[in-house]
Amino acid sequence: EIKNGDVVATYGYSTSVMRGISEAVAVHKTFSVIVIDAAPHFEGRRTSNLCLQLGLSVRYVLLPTANTVLSEANMLLVGCSALFCNGTLISRAGTSLCCLAAKYTNTPVLVCAETIKFRQGARMDALEKNERHIAVGEEERVGAKEGGNLQSQELALRYDATPMESLTAVVTEFGIIPPTSVVAIVREYSPQVLPS
Fold first, then answer.
1. Secondary structure class of 13 (helix, strand, coil)
2. CB 34 within 8 A of CB 61
């Protein structure tokens, strides 16, 4: 729960995180936000603009400074693309680094996730079923051949995996739960409700 005077850090953009921030503003909580962002998408700009529209004090920083700014935060709110039974969080690339920095600075990490994003099974890394990012204008260079040999291939993944040990809690429509309880919620619902 966001309290008056808190400094809330977040990474990139997440509709779930923005919903939580908006709800806190709606009940007249006064707090400031640190938005951590990274290339190539710079989604945090959207978060910054929305927080400014809500009347919040916003500090916008880039990922390499996460270690420094997270020591000033009361919590780190991150979004979720998927959350597996073993507690592994799949989210936008860079999330894992933010969570690791938060763990190092003893800053609680709260994952904002609807239970529809909970998945059966376990994930140990983000290499399986990931998307590659190819920057605009880079299509010709990536995988270009020179003399019949593959010159180089850029690997820029859209998502990364954060282990359960780097997460403090998961905020869902059922309330705040520990990451170890994801498996219990997945078991409670049929596979038709929670896709694998």
1. coil
2. yes
